[in-house]
Design brief:
By secondary structure, this protein is an alpha/beta fold. Helix 2 (about 120-140) packs antiparallel against helix 28. It is globular, with a radius of gyration of 35 Å.
Length: about 950
């Protein structure tokens, strides 16, 4: 190397030092000053790990005086380089000696990094190209936003999520029966809307009791980080912003909070939201034309929000007028008058009856044919009717689809019922009577009337928990578990079910804690507790200890919070140590096991004290509501109607059969009538539409194929290795990831300081709550790909090709260009023109070999080369590489023009087809909003403009030199 004072060099081993200047030459040593970092380095002249900085014509360089110039000519004056060109701000011709180059120059262009000796490792270049390919595939996938949820692949849920999630500003009512997954459906829609850019600011409103469940569900299942806003949070945020709701993008509030706190409600209405989600929407009622405060709040909130999703399992049971009012929230133009709605709705039955006729195996009678012809009078269906008569299923399906298109609320209302969905197990009640011990009888006798006059509900609740009355009598430290026969029964039952998992739910956290201690100390039974006093991490550990197959807890003892948010489908035995008064809460408890995906019958064990309040409540649920062995859709209505009589009997501390039997008989009859009405009122056509009629089966198959593919695990494990993330095999398809001191990036996406457990297996993630499910939709994968593509990681490399058929010294230049355009995220331009990697492989004669030489096959023939050797090779061949870069850019631009044409054609076709379909539907179904159709015109115009402005940039370069 020829060194001289004033020359500019960079360190090969410490590139972060910036641009250095030789300030001293003494014998065999030289000193380089790095002004940007204020550091000096003394090197041996013979072995200095440095590279001379030489810019080329066309480059833009910066002077220490902060002006820039474009280089037109480079000449040597003595041992120093002198750059001639045009100053960018004044367009004047200027000359700049290398000594006066800006010390903070960063080599952003791949070719600059290559010639400056900032050569990346062989595997980093490969990873960069693979990342661009994965980015491209992911942007093009119609499954984006549907594959990442930690949930089983349930067809009706995926159909609703796919149908609604792809809409512009969806406004729908999700009203599946309990246990069919409305929360998951809403989460999947949110996940898809957020990941695809259709929505970024979301407000969720739920009853206060469900805030934690929603927070956990959104985070655990969909990696959506919502923030709960209550009085304390709003007071705190007000110090940072005049509108507290603008301090977060994803916000969760309780219905009670925005109903009672007018100040914060007004701020919520003034904030900009893309989507509003309201759970338990049956609380939004209208009685005698007077809307409730809750309804008024949501009506005012939703007025200026484009998207609205309402959830309720009882859309019409709690009042038809309120049902109409909720539909009015979704589309006030469509549902403008209640009487007109009732009149229109009277004709829905004709459509539903016609659908039922088609669904039946028998032949269509003349009346049914006439009804179908009248309903579908826009088209001649005589041929289709003839084909149906001949038993052709495709004709029947075509007629059903035509009926669905005309269905009154089919586009905005989705409702699936258990009777219409396969896959549910049976439920079996095992009632276990035990005698009340004398300790409880004494405590009740002495303490029964203490506390004064209480409400009927409080008196009933008191009677249901004799252990609490005993502790009042003996003191909080008194141990009721020593004599309570339910505890002995529980121990015997766990021994009987020794090889099986058991979930126990009780009302109080202290009950669960006391039972766990007793089981552990008395019998050494492995158990775990799960209650609201624990942190989320502690609950995760308890749930994971219970879920693990080996060396794990046999029983998980939960307080009431165990009936919210968690699913334990791998267990088949449920112990209800006590019973709740609320029928919906009972269904929630059973629903932890009785869910789609449960493989065995659910055994419900209920220990109870004979001839006490507990027996009254057990018989109420069993004999009157049939709530243990069937899903109770009528329980809340009947409880509301008969609660006074029930609570009086429960509060009496005994089981008065003479008074109880007539009540149970009356309620059972009423239950039968109500269920028959609900069954009669079932809208089979609506259920068919909501289930997707098999349309989601292909989505399930595609996602299952992706789940089984090894591409993602292979890619991510390679990422972990290259970036220095420590991996420990935990077993059961799980890996523990931990940061190390040697990581390339100290802020590796989603990696916590104490590490995280991950799995690439959906089934494992469902049974092990502490393991994050890594999919293409996971923020860690997204973050990794952005981190690689947005940085200069791996963008310049040198490799050796050992091929005896080629002369030594022959070289190739491989260039990765990226064709891309900037556009608002909401346009989802990635559907048509995502950032697209264009590979060009130039030989020294300027021929592009990329079409004939595949990347992977070529890459496997290459070997890495040391950094100093790589730098020498790049500098030696620099003059030959520059013209090849220019030729390659011409090739890339030609390919980009083809990509633009294809993207434009694809966009016009897809948006045109979607718009035409909606326009045709609108002719027969007024639920199609004008705004939904007009948005296609706006999108087409904007997308066309952004596609035309696409540009190509050189993203990475690799020099390949032949060696024997």
């Amino acid at each position: 190397m020829n060194f001289s004072l004033g020359q500019r060099w960079i360190s090969d081993t410490e590139s972060d030092l910036g641009l250095g200047t030789i300030v001293a030459l003494e014998g065999r040593q030289m000193t380089i000053l790095f002004p940007a970092s204020g550091e000096n380095r003394v090197y041996s002249v013979q072995e200095a790990p440095v590279t001379r900085v030489i810019f080329n014509p066309g480059d833009v360089i910066r002077c220490v005086d902060e002006w820039e110039m474009r280089v037109e000519k480079v000449e040597e004056q003595g041992d120093l380089l002198c750059y001639h060109g045009e100053r960018l701000d004044t367009q004047e011709p200027v000359t700049l000696k290398e000594t006066f180059l800006d010390h903070f120059i960063k080599f952003n262009k791949p070719q600059d990094r290559l010639f400056a000796g900032q050569v990346d490792r062989f595997d980093r270049y490969t990873l960069r190209y693979q990342t661009w390919q994965h980015q491209f595939s992911r942007q093009q996938s119609h499954l984006k936003g549907l594959i990442g949820q930690r949930a089983s692949l349930i067809p009706h849920q995926l159909y609703i999520a796919d149908e609604v999630g792809k809409r512009f500003a969806p406004r729908v009512l999700l009203s599946d029966e309990v246990g069919l997954g409305k929360t998951i459906e809403a989460g999947m829609i949110l996940h898809q809307q957020i990941l695809t850019g259709r929505a970024s600011r979301v407000l969720i409103v739920v009853p206060e009791s469900l805030q934690h469940q929603w927070l956990v569900e959104m985070l655990r299942r969909f990696n959506l980080h919502f923030s709960i806003f209550d009085e304390d949070r709003c007071d705190e945020a007000f110090a940072d912003s005049p509108n507290v709701f603008e301090t977060e993008q994803l916000v969760l509030v309780s219905l009670e909070f925005i109903t009672k706190k007018r100040r914060w409600f007004e701020q919520a209405t003034l904030a900009d939201w893309d989507l509003l989600v309201v759970d338990e929407a049956h609380h939004l009622t209208v009685e005698k034309d007077k809307p409730s405060t809750e309804y008024q709040r949501i009506a005012e909130l939703s007025q200026d929000i484009a998207g609205l999703i309402l959830l309720t399992a009882t859309p019409d049971q709690l009042g038809h007028r309120s049902h109409f009012a909720r539909l009015q929230l979704l589309d006030p133009d469509r549902f403008y008058d209640y009487d007109a709605f009732v009149e229109e709705e009277s004709h829905y039955k004709e459509v539903a009856d016609a659908a039922n006729k088609l669904l039946q195996d028998g032949k269509l009678d003349d009346k049914a044919k006439a009804t179908l012809s009248e309903l579908l009078k826009e088209t001649d269906i005589s041929d289709l009717l003839s084909q149906v008569e001949q038993g052709e299923e495709t004709a029947k399906q075509t007629l059903l689809n035509n009926l669905l298109d005309r269905h009154g609320t089919g586009r905005i209302l989705f409702r699936n019922s258990r009777s219409g969905i396969d896959g549910y197990p049976s439920r079996k009640l095992h009632a276990c009577p035990v005698e009340m011990p004398k300790q409880y009888k004494t405590a009740i006798s002495v303490m029964g009337n203490i506390g004064g006059i209480q409400s009927a509900e409080k008196s009933a609740l008191r009677a249901l928990f004799p252990e609490k009355i005993f502790q009042e009598f003996e003191g909080e430290s008194a141990s009721w578990t020593q004599f309570d026969p339910r505890v002995a029964w529980l121990i015997d039952k766990l021994k009987e079910l020794k090889q099986q998992k058991v979930l126990l739910i009780c009302a109080e956290a202290q009950t669960a804690i006391s039972l766990e201690q007793t089981l552990r100390e008395r019998e050494g039974i492995k158990s775990a507790v799960f209650h609201e006093g624990m942190s989320i991490i502690e609950r995760d550990r308890a749930a994971a200890y219970f879920a693990d197959e080996y060396d794990s807890a046999q029983v998980l003892l939960c307080s009431e919070i165990g009936s919210e948010g968690r699913n334990f489908q791998f267990a088949h035995h449920l112990v209800l140590f006590d019973l709740p008064l609320n029928p919906d809460l009972l269904e929630q408890r059973i629903g932890r096991l009785d869910r789609i995906g449960q493989q065995q019958d659910v055994n419900i064990h209920v220990p109870y004290f004979e001839n006490t309040a507990q027996e009254v409540l057990l018989r109420w649920y069993d004999e009157a509501l049939d709530a243990f062995e069937t899903t109770s859709t009528t329980g809340q209505l009947l409880y509301k109607e008969f609660s006074d009589d029930l609570l009086e009997l429960v509060a009496a501390h005994n089981c008065d059969e003479e008074a109880l039997d007539p009540l149970l008989e009356q309620v059972a009859k009423q239950n039968t009538v109500l269920r028959a009405k609900m069954e009669q009122g079932r809208d089979r056509l609506l259920e068919l539409h909501s289930s997707g009629m098999g349309k989601a089966d292909s989505i399930v198959e595609e996602i299952e194929t992706l789940d089984d593919d090894v591409v993602l695990p292979t890619y991510m494990i390679n990422v972990f290795d290259i970036f220095g993330v420590n991996q420990e095999d935990k077993g059961e398809n799980t890996i523990i990831l931990k940061p190390t001191e040697h990581m390339l990036n100290p802020s590796f996406p989603c990696l916590k300081d104490d590490g995280i457990t991950v799995t690439f297996d959906r089934g494992t993630s469902l049974s092990q709550e502490d393991a994050q499910f890594i999919s293409w939709d996971h923020p860690m994968v997204e973050g990794v790909m952005d981190m690689i593509c947005d940085d200069d990681f791996g963008c310049a490399s040198v490799a050796l090709l050992k091929n005896n058929k080629l002369p030594v010294g022959t070289f190739f230049v491989e260039l990765i260009f990226v064709a891309e355009t900037s556009a608002p995220k909401s346009l989802q331009i990635g559907r048509f023109l995502p950032p697209t990697p264009i590979r060009v492989l130039m030989d020294k004669s300027g021929n592009d070999l990329a079409q004939n030489v595949a990347f992977d096959a070529f890459n496997n023939q290459l070997s890495a080369v040391g950094r100093q050797t790589a730098s020498k090779l790049a500098n030696a061949l620099q003059s030959g590489i520059h013209p090849l870069i220019s030729k390659a850019e011409e090739q890339a631009k030609a390919q980009m023009a083809e990509l633009q044409q294809a993207a434009q054609a694809q966009m016009e076709t897809r948006l045109g087809d979607e718009q035409a379909r909606l326009q045709a539907l609108k002719a027969v179904n007024p639920n199609i909003r004008d705004e939904e159709i007009q948005v296609f015109d706006r999108q087409r115009s904007a997308l066309s403009e952004h596609i035309s402005k696409a540009q190509v940039k050189l993203d990475a370069i690799r020099l390949i030199v032949v060696a024997h």
